[in-house]
Every structure is written in C-alpha cells, then in structure tokens.
C-alpha cells in the first residue's frame, strides 16, 4: 500500500521530531511512505474563525495532493476530523474527495484498525508511568476511545497500542475523557476558561502520579505543556508516536 504522510502545519514548524517519529513508525511496518511537499494546512484554524473561503481553497488543494494514495495517515486526530467531517460542503459528491475521506486515518487508528493491533510489536522498553489524554475530536468523532457518557465498558485504541510497549505503566485517571480546554481558537477567545480546564486536566494526571502525559493530538499536549512549564509541574508531555517509536523523555 502507498501511504501519503500528512503532517499538520504547526507540527511541521514546532515539533519536527514528532513528525519524524510518525514516519519512523510507518516505515517500521514495512510501508511505502511518501511525504508530498505540496501539502499545506488543512484549514482547521480558518474554519474555527469563520473564514470559509480560505478553507475551501485549502480543501481543494488537500484533495488534489492526496487523492492518489491508498491511505493518508496523520499524527493528529483534529486535523483528520477536519478533512473527514468538514470538507463535504465544498464538494458535490466528488469522487476524489469521497476517496480521500474514506482513506484518511489518524495514525493510532491506522495502526490499530488497518495494520491490526495483533500484527504490531514494539521491542523497546519505556519504564515510566503514563497517563493518556483523550483529545475531543479523536475521542468522540474518530472513536479512538469510548466516551464516558455512553456508560459502556471503556476501550481505548491508544491504550491498546501502548500496552504493547514493554515495561510501560499506564495509570488510571479520575476522568478518562475530560477536555484539556485547548479547542483551537477557543484558547485565544476564552483564555481564562481554557487555562482553568488545562490545569484541571493536568491535576488529574499529577494526582495519579503520572510521569508522562501522552495523547494523539499535539495541539492539546502543547496547551498543557505550556501550563506545566509555567507552573513548574513535575510531569512531561509526549506525543504517543514518540513513545511507540522508542523516544525517551
């Protein structure tokens, strides 16, 4: 299968090591991975700000760039959600967009559901206490984990993958799916509320003695990392692909 690697724009600029870890994981599965240089932002910040014309231009460009790949894989649940759920209004039953919509996956979803969890093995050890932050888009739209309001047994694709890593200790949180408060432009428009929510999310991890907070969205982790650094909290954040790729904190 031919994989088109989609890297969110802010990750490309601010977190290149996470992007490289994503590439490494896919290559370690023996996949043919291509990184198309013509890719741009998915348009999520513009959509959050009401700039629909700008989103349409980016959506058309995205589909043109990625339409010929068997799968499109990205280390961001929110960006994948943007493509799957919010591009439709710009395409009238377009064959190319329908293919892209069906082919794009967040990397944990791709490893768990397409490569299959039973076919994945990690050799490296990660002897740390780790708490999983379930970002809202991935959690409730992509179904990366079970939402608590459904009152059904909890299952998490992120947890299932991390349990394959030797010597890792996954902690239990009081709230498995509480929002961190980032919410894209919400964190700018409602700064005080956003920070308060972030502090609550971090406190849950601290109370559970987590050494590492991980998740599938670097935007949420970036938000919490800023609060952690300002408050000098004794915990670090790592994107899940870093742990799966063997990166140490």
From TrEMBL:
Q: List the Gene Ontology MF annotations in alphabetical order.
A: oxidoreductase activity
* Database matches in InterPro entries: Cys_rich_dom (IPR004017)
Q: Where is the Cysteine-rich domain?
A: 4-84, 130-225
Q: Name one GO cellular component term.
A: cytosol
Domain of life according to the entry: Bacteria
What is the protein named?
L-lactate utilization protein LutA
């Amino acid at each position: 299968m031919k994989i088109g690697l989609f890297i969110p724009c802010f990750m490309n600029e601010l977190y290149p090591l996470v992007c490289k870890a994503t590439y490494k994981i896919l290559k370690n599965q023996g996949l043919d991975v291509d990184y198309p240089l013509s890719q741009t932002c998915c348009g999520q910040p513009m959509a959050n700000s009401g700039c629909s014309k700008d989103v349409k231009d980016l959506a058309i460009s995205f589909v043109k760039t990625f339409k010929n790949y068997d799968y499109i894989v990205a280390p961001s649940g929110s960006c994948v959600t943007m493509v799957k759920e919010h591009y439709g209004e710009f395409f009238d039953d377009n064959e190319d967009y329908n293919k892209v919509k069906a082919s794009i996956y967040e990397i944990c979803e791709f490893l768990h559901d397409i490569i299959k969890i039973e076919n994945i093995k990690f050799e490296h050890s990660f002897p740390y206490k780790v708490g999983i932050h379930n970002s809202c888009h991935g959690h409730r739209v992509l179904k990366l984990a079970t939402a608590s309001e459904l009152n059904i047994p909890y299952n998490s694709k992120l947890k299932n993958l991390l349990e394959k890593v030797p010597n890792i200790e996954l902690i239990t949180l009081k709230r498995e799916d509480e929002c961190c408060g980032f919410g894209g432009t919400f964190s700018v428009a409602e700064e005080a509320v956003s920070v308060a929510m972030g502090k609550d999310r971090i406190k849950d991890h601290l109370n559970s003695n987590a050494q590492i907070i991980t998740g599938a969205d670097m935007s949420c982790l970036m938000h919490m990392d800023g609060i952690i650094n300002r408050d000098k909290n004794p915990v670090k954040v790592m994107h899940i692909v870093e742990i799966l790729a063997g990166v140490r904190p």
